[in-house]
Write a structure and sequence with these properties.
Blueprint lengths: L2 H7 L13 H9 L14
Length: 45
């Protein structure tokens, strides 16, 4: 599941608003999710 899907399913604020979080908190939160390149089968060829 990507970050945008997670946010939508859990009624969480969208990633565009993460920049308004304190940086340390935002970086810890975003680091929990795989990057698009790490997602199996979804990287563009």
């Amino acid at each position: 599941m990507d970050l945008d899907t997670f946010c939508a399913r859990h009624y969480h604020r969208p990633r565009q608003l993460f920049a308004f979080d304190p940086w340390r908190r935002a970086l810890r939160y975003v680091a929990r999710f795989p990057t698009p390149d790490e997602q199996v089968g979804t990287a563009p060829s």
